[in-house]
Automatic annotation (TrEMBL):
<keyword id="KW-0805">Transcription regulation</keyword>
<protein>
    <submittedName>
        <fullName>ArsR family transcriptional regulator</fullName>
    </submittedName>
</protein>
<feature type="domain" description="HTH arsR-type">
    <location>
        <begin position="30"/>
        <end position="125"/>
    </location>
</feature>
<dbReference type="GO" id="GO:0003700">
    <property type="term" value="F:DNA-binding transcription factor activity"/>
</dbReference>
<dbReference type="GO" id="GO:0003677">
    <property type="term" value="F:DNA binding"/>
</dbReference>
<dbReference type="InterPro" id="IPR036390">
    <property type="entry name" value="WH_DNA-bd_sf"/>
</dbReference>
<dbReference type="InterPro" id="IPR001845">
    <property type="entry name" value="HTH_ArsR_DNA-bd_dom"/>
</dbReference>
<dbReference type="InterPro" id="IPR051081">
    <property type="entry name" value="HTH_MetalResp_TranReg"/>
</dbReference>
<dbReference type="Pfam" id="PF01022">
    <property type="entry name" value="HTH_5"/>
</dbReference>
<keyword id="KW-0238">DNA-binding</keyword>
<dbReference type="InterPro" id="IPR036388">
    <property type="entry name" value="WH-like_DNA-bd_sf"/>
</dbReference>
<dbReference type="InterPro" id="IPR011991">
    <property type="entry name" value="ArsR-like_HTH"/>
</dbReference>
<keyword id="KW-0804">Transcription</keyword>
Length: 125
């Protein structure tokens, strides 16, 4: 003998006015190309030193920073150069040599692309 029983269904139809419990967070899934780009960006920013360097460049007055202005992140100068190279390879930074110094700038499209990736989709009306 089983202790299970079937409960009666209270309503046979779901009213049309019921909103979904969990609206989508983004407008659509990534394309393969978008996913590749996002993965490359986030992988490059996955290291705390690189994230600090990227943040230092992005927030620096004038929108660019000399390596001499941002190298105080608790690692050696060669390590800073290595991390800046990784950020450039990921397409997050550009650089320009002026005399003996290298100046870094956030790639103009990067912040907009990151913002778009992280923006919640507008709620359906």
């Amino acid at each position: 003998m089983s202790n299970t029983r079937v409960l009666p269904l209270l309503e046979s139809e779901v009213p049309e006015t019921v909103a979904p419990c969990c609206p989508p967070l983004t407008e659509r899934p990534f394309t393969a190309e978008e996913a590749e780009t996002a993965a490359r960006m986030f992988k490059a920013l996955g290291d705390p030193v690189r994230l600090r360097l990227f943040s230092a460049v992005a927030s620096h007055e004038g929108g660019e920073a000399c390596v001499c202005d941002i190298s105080d992140v608790g690692v050696s100068q060669p390590t800073v150069s290595h991390h800046l190279k990784k950020l450039k390879e990921a397409g997050l930074l550009t650089s320009e040599r002026r005399g003996t110094w290298v100046y870094y700038r956030v790639e103009p499209s990067v912040l907009a692309a990151m913002g778009k990736l992280l923006t919640i989709a507008p709620a359906a009306a």
